[in-house]
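Hello, quick one for you while I still have it in my head. Could you read through the record and tell me how the tokens relate to the sequence? No rush at all, and the record is pasted right below.
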Amino acid sequence: MRRIASWLLLTVLLFAVCTLTALAAPETSWHRETLVSDLGGYGAMTTLAVDQQLRPHVFHYGYDKVDLTHWFHDGSRWVTQTLDTNGGWYPAAACDQQNRIHISYSDGDPCGLAYGLLERGVWSFQVIEYDCCPQYSDIAVDSAGVPHVSYYACMRQEVCYATIRDSQWVTQTVEHTGDEDNKVRQTSIAVDSMGHPHIAYHHADLARARYAWLDGSGWHHETVYDGAHTGTHLSMALDSNGAPRVAHYDTDAGRLRYSERGETGWSTEMLDGSMWGGYYPSLVLDANDVPFIAYERLKNGDLTLAQRENVTWTYTVLDSDGTVGYFTQMVMDRFDRPHIATTEHDARAVLYLQYGHTTRVALPIAIKP
């Protein structure tokens, strides 16, 4: 009897292991979901964060339906809530190690830079700076959970930086950049292991992509690539050594460029030479510092993913249904799986794309009163 019982127990254990392995096996395909459509105008400005339980949080601001909206997956379905009825331009989002969601955006009244924090299911909001007419904010969070924000202040024609010190928001000018009418002026921020901010941005007067970082001696500035008008659309990430990498759009060539900063300076290469592309790039690195760039190909409006394997870049069209790729945001989850939020221009729709299988855990979310 003992031998039979042992065999039965072993059989049950093997079945359980095989079942769990099958359930946990990652998928190797992209999944696309339309969160909302018919937004009017140009669609929406979008951003994305993925929390520690692999739940996506998509934020968008509609040009005609002028609300900042939060879409989140509660483990079984998508749920939506309105966060701000008077603002929401240029939203940015990040998740910290404590599983809190941080957002920055432009508030309509009083044309200031706003900050929101989702903690334990409850939102709280603050104004970082009043009356600066901010655009293209980006946000990163350090290991202590402190938010760092970059943005372009139209009123002063400056790229600026904000963070919390002694429970108060402190702002600094990174560089006076001038202005170009109807030009995108994206900023991109990352924080290194020492808590120092690194920012990539477009310098209008120089017509170049620029990079700045802050340390104990102040701000330092460099030009990423000096051979063309670049940087109106850009995205930056820091590798495991804290070195910056930048994806940026070359306005002169109509192409996407990728730059890395090494010991001897910047090196730059042109990507996707077969077709014009490079609007709204979003750059992420996996655990092995392999770069992935999501962006829009201009010629046919395809949402495209570029990935470097050793020294060779490969390209995958993720969505060719309409004009896809405005305000693209990509993040890598803790299992090195990319998630993307973007807009489809023709249908005025907000899209969410995810690679592989994800199991999500439910979370109660409180609506802002």
Summary: Confidence is low (pLDDT under 50) at residues 1-26, 362-369. Residues 2-24 form the longest helix (23 residues). Residues 111 and 160 are 15 Å apart (CA to CA). Residues 33-355 form a domain with the Neuraminidase fold (CATH 2.120.10.10).
